[in-house]
Amino acid sequence: MKEPQTKKEEIVFVIDADPSCRAGLKELFESVGLKVRLYASGNAFLGDGIPDATSCLVLEVRLPERSGLKVQEDLARADIHMPIVFVTGQGDIPMAVRAMKAGAVDFLIKPFRSQDLLDAVFAALERDRARRKEQRLYSHLRKRFGSLSAREREVVARVVAGDLNKQTAAKLGLSEVTVKLHRAHAMHKMGAKTLPDLVRMIERCNNGRRRNSRH
Predict the structure, then answer these.
(1) N or C: which end of the chain has fewer CB within 10 A?
(2) Beta strand 35-39 with 84-88: parallel, antiparallel or unpaired?
(3) Angle subtended by helix axes 176-190 and 150-160, to nearest 10
(4) In terms of CATH, what superfamily is 11-133?
(5) Segment holding 191, helix H or strand E
(6) What φ, ψ does residue 173 adopt, rounded to 5°?
(7) Interaxial angle between packed helices 195-214 and 114-146, expressed in degrees from 0 to 180 and rounded to the nearest 10
(8) Residues 6+ apart with CB under 8 A from 157
(9) pLDDT, tens digit, for every residue of 113-144?
(10) Is domain 147-214 given the CATH code 3.40.47.10 in the classification?
């Protein structure tokens, strides 16, 4: 099976108290071109600087001082959305359910096949890659949206709500010609070629803002 191509900035973090497990995982991930960082505990990982790079975390559930599930909670509380692949030699169904409900990519019981772990890690990296792409797009759209005047935002809001130019003009106390001008300016600033493009962009901005407000 051909592995997906990896990029230099992609990193797999490994937290496992067993030195032999850490060494084995390091060898496995490096054999497919992945960068690896090893930690013996959750405290050591959380105390280290986490780079702004596409990454995932291979996390043993049972750790000294701070369990893997607690590390997962701490990352979520810190608004760090790193995909997690749990591994453990003493897992149970409630533990796995809890981890998956909290957003884990996979939950593997030792001993597992190397390919199963690689598949889970590549899926986790792809998830993080997609999240980062969405974040960049959202930031770009928010920057463009921020360039709109207050009146242009009002007109755009009515467009997204489905109002016709005549309805928008009546609600905002403007002429239809003025509404069309504001709409055209807003489309130009947002980089929207068509009205549906503009609606999709604004909805994407709104969805991103709602997601951020929940974290």
Answers:
(1) N
(2) unpaired
(3) 90
(4) Response regulator (3.40.50.2300)
(5) none
(6) 70, 35
(7) 110
(8) 202
(9) 999 999 999 999 999 999 999 888 888 999 99
(10) no
